[in-house]
Amino acid sequence: MKPLLPASLILFVIILGSLPSCTKETVRTETIRDTVAAIPLTTTQILSKYKWAVYESFQVIKGVSSSDTAHYLRGKVNTINGGVDVQRLTFNANGTGTYLGGDGLNYTTTWLFTSPDEQNMKLVVTRGSSSITYNWSLINIRDSAIYQTTAASGMLVSAKWIPSNN
User: Fold this and answer.
1) How wide is the angle at C-alpha 141 spanned by C-alphas 74 and 147, nearest 5°?
2) Of 98, 111, 100, 94, nearest to 54 (Cα)?
3) DSSP at 36
4) Closest alpha carbon to 150 in 129, 166, 132, 162
5) Quick one: CA dihedral 65, 70, 125, 133, positive or negative?
6) 43-163, CATH topology level
7) At a CB cut-off of 8 Å and minimum separation 6, what does 111 contact?
């Protein structure tokens, strides 16, 4: 009789070889970034976000016999009388605000859009019992600038206002 050990050993190796082997699984970690589109600000939110300063202004002044022009470009040209460099406007979302005039004095303001497309505005500047009403037209409000035109008392003014650091 032959020993069973070698056949048993062969059978054991075959069975062992057919069993599934254990392996270490690799776990991958992925970071998923979800981007949400920014909701655009309304014109009122843009207006009330900054204090605004005149960057450039053109004035056409109708005289008795001719028209004259004046130009202001911050830090470059100033043929406009008055302290355009110091003028600042703030707009509060509730329709109020402040104006620092070219004379260095602070004024209170009220404002409201006068057209549904928000391209026209009534701006009232008040100090004490005196007030002046400006009717801004052709307004284009962006996060980096306000463009506006005003016709008043024989004068046409077109200006670009930019956010001010002070």
Assistant:
1) 40
2) 100
3) -
4) 132
5) positive
6) Lipocalin (2.40.128)
7) 91, 95, 96, 97, 121, 122, 123, 124
Closest CA to 118 of 40, 54, 42, 48: 42
pLDDT one digit per residue (tens) for the chain, 166 residues: 555 556 555 555 565 555 555 566 777 777 778 788 888 999 999 999 999 999 999 988 877 556 688 899 998 998 887 789 899 999 999 999 999 999 999 999 999 999 999 999 999 999 999 999 999 999 999 989 999 999 877 888 999 999 998 7
Distance CA 78, CA 54 (A): 12
Residue with tokens 């130009």: 71
Q: 141 and 47 in contact (C-beta within 8 Å)?
A: yes
